[in-house]
Amino acid sequence: MTSVGLAASLPVVPFLAALAGLLLPLRARRLAAVLGVGATGIALLAAGWLAATLADPVESAVTVVEFGDVAVTAGVRVDQIAALVAVAVGVVACGVQLYSVSYLHDDERYVPYAAQVSLFTAAMLNVVVAGDLVQLLVGWEVMGICSYLLIGHDRRLPEAPGAAVKAFLVTRVGDVGFWLGVVVLGLAAGSFQFADVFAAVAGGDIGAATLTTAALLLLAGVAGKSAQFPLHTWLPDAMAGPTPISALIHAATMVAAGVYVVGRLFPVYAAAPVALAVLAVVAAVTMLLGGLAATAQDDIKRVLAWSTVSQIGYMAAALAVGSTVASTFHLLSHAAFKALLFLAAGAVIHAVGSNLMSLMGGVRVGTPVTFWSITIGLAALAGLPPFAGFWSKESVLGAAYEATVGHGAVAPWAAWLVLTSGLLTVLVTGWYATRLWLRTCFGQRRGDFVPHDPPSLMRWPLVVLAVPSALLGVSVVAVSAEWSEALPPFDPLLSLLVLALTALGAGGAWLAWRRDTAADPAVTLGPARTVFARAFYLDEVQDILVVRPAWALARVVRRVDERLVDGAVEGTGTGALGLGRLLTAAHRAGLPGYATAVLGGAVLIGVAAVLTEVLT
Amino acid sequence: MTWLLLATLVVPALGAAVVAALPGRLDQVGRILATVVAGLALLASLALYGRPVDPDASGIRPWAEYDVPWASGLDLSFHLGVDGISWPLVVLTTLLTLLCCGYTVWQGPAVTGGKNLLALLLVIEVGIVGVFAALDLVLFFVFFEVTLLPMYAVIAGWGGPDRRHAARKFVLYTLFGSVLLLVGVFTVVSAAGTADLVRLSAGGGEGITRGVQVAAFALLALAFAVKSPLWPLHTWLPDAHTEAPTVGSVILAGVLLKMGTYGLIRVAGVVPTGAQALAPVLGVLAVAAILVGSLVCLAQTELKRLIAYSSVGHMGFVLLGIATLTAAGFQAALIGNIAHGVITGLLFFLAGAIKDRAHTGDLTALGGLRETAPGLAGLLGFAAIASLGLPGLAGFWGEAFAVYAALQLGSLWTVLGVLGAVGGAFTAAYFLRLLRRVTHGPAVDTVAGVVPLRTGELVAWGPLAVLALALGLVPGLVLWLTSDPVEALIQVIS
User: If contacts are CB pairs under 8 Å, which of residues 179-218 in chain A contact chain B?
Assistant: First the structure.
């Protein structure tokens, strides 16, 4: 099979499975499971085959439709990075499908759920392989609606529908910008195809102002999808979705899509330094904000959610300092360890019956698979060598350090900002990762539960994901000459600094925990704890600045439309009726009245006749 | 081809007469007969598909034509024809009529006097198809008026509790538009010396002074704005929809409104100078419609009223596309027209079914539909998502490329395009609010024990759901047909 055919099958196969799955009756669980696991499995195989056989980038497209002078095309454009990201998507999606069969074994809406996961996968793979901005947008938004459907899946959670709506609307607000950015680029290049856009950028056919506008507008959409400040607020609430969905959204799809697309469109960003500087600021704020918010959450999934916000910040930071390779590296390693962490958290929640860490503790006893999964995942997250996160985070920070001298489109101050924030976040990450580890796995059991490993369908995805979480970094750095060349050179001093900061954070958390193993180490944060737990009150800010004014405006507009605009119409009606009644009343004068009127009229006519006679 | 063209009009006209003449006890027979007739009309309209006879002519190049003198003293002729612009709309009309007829057969005794309702729908079909096929301005006007009274009767006869008021408002308001249309038509005809649309649009306003063109376009645009409807001339629509029976709403939103936008596209080629002069006004009002429509929906509390207002917003996008007077804008408007007809048709079917089951359309009194009727809730979710313009479904192309066409023009239009895009985000907000109110959460009393999705309903609505997906994935189904005629039209306009 050709590379183009393989790449095209990536979104098509899961899409067809999703379509079929959505039409199945609710009782066809087994068939739905086969369709879901099968489709994502085939996509994974195709992606693996593609990654193994792809030598040079390939591209192919057919015209879908023309609007005036501009054509919308559908096709594929894949290089090695796209193929690897597709593999990551395939691994996580397939693992999530398998895991869900068991996790949702008593859920009667499993059938549409499995189809929606397939659709989600198809949409993400479409984003991965797309070579046309509009085609990309299709996958981009379908992912949004899938996240809406899946976050709102759980009927027992009263907050789920609201969280689902929030996830779609916040990203949709960003997508207004994204679409406008696509239009600006398409108008300037005369085409929506990446190749044409890049050629126009390289040829200097697009003015600097236009490029910057387009790049910034696209960033709005990226910030929404990738949960970057200030459009990050939907992601922690999205934890209302079933845990496998959290793994899917956080690891390989949705939030990864934003940074992936910036990397994909990097020639545009490289020519728009202002946009890169904005991205640097956004990334610096997001990394630290997410990390700090993660320190004080009690819900295990919310800790992981905020850590995703923070880690995606690292990927955005790598892009902001001009290293798409470091960004992709961190994307891949994060995909592995975050999927692992969520699925492991799902196993813990499954055993404990609650998301709250204050009800956990002592989970490590009798749960080797769960415990070691969490341990490996957290080690990778905190960036301990030799786990995957160490190498990828190292390369992000290394790229930032390299950029501090100022090269390419990156301003030195932006690189310094990113580096400082990144290092501080390393410390914070060490702290909250250790807190999570100790609060769940160690100490006394605080809830009424018996720790146990999950059934095998849930266990195997953990084992499979633990391998890349542990080894991806080493294998990339040691095995692939191509990658290690493209990555920033390994800097021992920087590594030592990073390790020292991690140790400081982890040690701090450990010391706080040791004083009282039943208490939350977060109490040592003092008054800052509430601020962090509420994530700097940004939800409230968003509510005051956007949500309430929009509601108030809607109510005012409705009233004006009903009272004023429609009032005028109804007024015309009642006015005409009133006038009619008035005239009717005037005609209802009775016989004497009529006689008087006739007489008066006759006199008038007579007078008029006499007058005309006299005057002429 | 000619006989097919005539068949699309004559078959439903005769069918309506026969169905109406049947005695009342043969009600169900009449309904079935009407459905058969509507099916024949659909087949005839589908078979009309073809290629232009003279591909190089500018202006309108019909695939099939029928032209006989009617009142030769007035230079008036019975001139019909379809081209790539009108054919999709003709098919949409015959399809929706068939689905409405089939649905009414399935509804059985739940609707009283169903055969008379269907006879009226067939008459409306004749009028709407006639409007789309008329190649003579006066004939266009005549067909435009044919739809008016049957629709009045549908609302007044089979509507909700406040039907009389709504029907009266509908008929008086649109009659007001018709007067303007009549004056506009004769302004054009007297200035150009012909009513023939092919000749008029081939000339591109030649021989008509700028002043007359502006006046004529203003009159015609006002008339079409009432029909489309364009803010602030839209207030007949929510009342009419809220009170109209389900099939009435489907036809009204699905195709009746399209007569306005279709007419606008046609007359833009007849008086292009006038269109260019007034395009910015049209654009501003279209964007106002998008924003007002979506904001009102956000604060709306009645199901059918919400969907009615959403039509104001969606038709705003179509009108924005037309107002740009560019090829991209016209293409966007034409796919937007069809997409809105398909999706809103589906939404009104669903809203009607939900109101029939729950006996209320109050959003605060509904909830948890997915617990008791998952199929119905799923289909409502699909329709709402299609309507909010999700890429990959039919609604996306028209709205996204109306914005594109506006941005293409720059200056004032950039602002309009950006505001339109913001309106798109509001659209998402109100549809998700609708779904949250109706389908999510625990099942409330009103939806407890409701009948789940029935096979008959699925048969009637399925084609629309399939079309919403198919047009989303392959917008070329419509746009390959329209691109040539649109290019020809744009040549005339610019």
Answer: 179-180, 183-184, 186-187
The ipTM is 0.91
Radius of gyration of chain A (CA): 31
Reduced to 3 states, what is the DSSP secondary structure of residue A58?
strand
pTM of the model: 0.91
B428:A172 CB<8 A: yes
A408-457 per-position pLDDT tens digit = 678 889 889 999 999 999 999 999 999 999 888 888 888 888 888 888 88
Identify the residue among B440, B469, B477, B487 best suited for mutation to test binding to A, counting A beta carbons within 10 A and taking the highest.
B440
Cα–Cα nearest to A97, from A289, A331, A327, A253: A253
CA B299, CA B295: separation in Å to the nearest integer? Answer: 7
Helices (H), B22-147: 27-47, 86-107, 114-133, 137-146
Structure tokens at A138: 């299709």
Give whole-number Cα distances, B198 to A325, B45, B66, B138, in Å: 60, 21, 12, 13
Dist CA B83 CA B482 (whole Å): 8
Give me B2's structure tokens: 């000619």
- Return the structure tokens found at B236: 């007949």
Report the DSSP pairing between strands B64-71 and A70-78. unpaired
- Chain B contact present for A15, CB below 8 A: no
Q: What is the pLDDT of residues B379-397, one digit of tens each?
A: 999 999 999 989 989 999 9
- The per-residue pLDDT for range B284-326, each reduced to its tens digit, is 999 999 999 999 998 888 899 999 999 999 999 999 999 999 9
The continuous run of DSSP H or E covering A242 comes out as: none
Residue A482 has pLDDT above 80, yes or no: no
Report the pLDDT averaged over residues A204-230. 91
Q: Determine the residue of chain A that is closest to B170 in CA distance.
A: A569
3-state SS class at B196: strand
Residue B55: its pLDDT value, please?
61
Give the three-state DSSP class for B61. coil
- pLDDT given at position B260: 92
Strand partners, A299: A356
Any B CB within 8 A of A65 CB: yes
Question: pLDDT (tens digit, 9 = 90+) per residue, A262-283?
Answer: 999 999 998 888 999 999 999 9
Closest CB from B231, B236, B391 relative to A138: B391
Q: Determine the angle formed by the axes of helices B27-47 and B86-107, rounding to 10 degrees.
A: 160
Which 3 state secondary structure label does DSSP give B31?
A: helix
Q: Does the pLDDT at position A362 exceed 70? A: yes
- Looking at CA atoms only, how far is residue B489 from chain A in angstroms? 12
Q: What is the DSSP letter of A66?
A: E
Binning pLDDT at 50, 70 and 90, where does residue B57 land? low
Contact flag A165-B432 (C-beta cutoff 8 Å): yes
Where does the pLDDT of residue A130 fall: very low under 50, low under 70, confident under 90, or very high at 90 and above?
A: very high
Pick the closest to residue B303 from B426, B427, B438 (CA basis). Answer: B438
Residues 6+ apart with CB under 8 A from A284: A313, A317, A417, A418, A420, A421, A422
Q: How far apart are CA B482 and CA B89, in angstroms?
A: 11
Q: Does A519 touch chain B (CB under 8 A)?
A: no
Do residues B60 and B485 touch, judged by C-beta distance below 8 A?
yes
Distance in Å, alpha carbon of B128 to nearest chain A alpha carbon: 26
What integer pLDDT is reported at residue A375 of this predicted model? 92
Q: Which amino acid is at A418?
A: V
What's the rounded Cα separation, in Å, for the pair B334 and B397? Answer: 10
Which pLDDT belongs to residue B182? 92
- Least-confidence region, from A28-37, A507-516, A576-585, B47-56: B47-56
Asked if the peptide bond before residue A386 counts as cis, ω within 30 degrees of 0, the response is: yes
B334 to chain A: closest CA residue: A67
